Structures are given as structure tokens and as C-alpha cells.
Amino acid sequence: MKPMDHETQPLEKWRDGVMTRMLYSSLVKSMQLCIFEQFCEPGLGAPIHLHAVEEVLEVIEGEAEIYLRGEAALVRPGQSVLVPAGAKHGFKNVGTGILRVRATLAAPIFEASYEDRNELSRRYVP
Which domains does the chain have, with CATH numbers? Predict the structure, then answer.
């Protein structure tokens, strides 16, 4: 067993003001989970989208407004939201510093379909 050193994993720009670090996925031999962190500047985050599987969104640092099926909630460090499979959701940084969110998907790959057709659909596979 060798621990994963997340600080050495690369950050990738997903959109202006939003960086992503893929922690676990099929790219590192995960068979059932995709776990990643996003670092979002104030006012930015993830637009409304959906996944075919459940997702847990956990705030690590900062404050997020998380949208789920037309409702919004303020989520702070140590809190999380369970997003059902197929549910439209998104979030944004409503604080003044960087928002750090950890997302866990019940699949080894990341796939998302966005409400905004100008947003790139994303799929991470080996």
C-alpha cells in the first residue's frame, strides 16, 4: 500500500476561476468512486448540471450556495449535500475567499451534462 499524495496531483482549469484536482478515478485504478476537489474564486463554481449517479458535495473551506432541484442552501465547512442520481444541481462561492469543495461520485469516471449548452460536457476515462 502506498498513500496517495494529493498535493502532487495536478490542478486543471475547468473554467475561468475554477481549478480542479482529480483525487481518485479510474485513472488511478478506482473501481467505484470518482473523488475530486474544486477551488473556486468568489462568485464562481459549477453551473447547473446532472450526473447519472449519486454525488456528495462537501465544503472543505469557504461558503457555498448549493442548488438542488430548484432549492438553494448555504453550506459551510464540515457540511455536505447528497445529490440524487439524475438531479439537477450546481453551486457557487458566496464567500470572500477561495471555496474548496470535495465531490464524491458513485462511479469511477466523471461524466456531467450541463443545462447551459455552451458549457463543455466532461468525461474522464482511462
Answer: 6-124 (2.60.120.10)
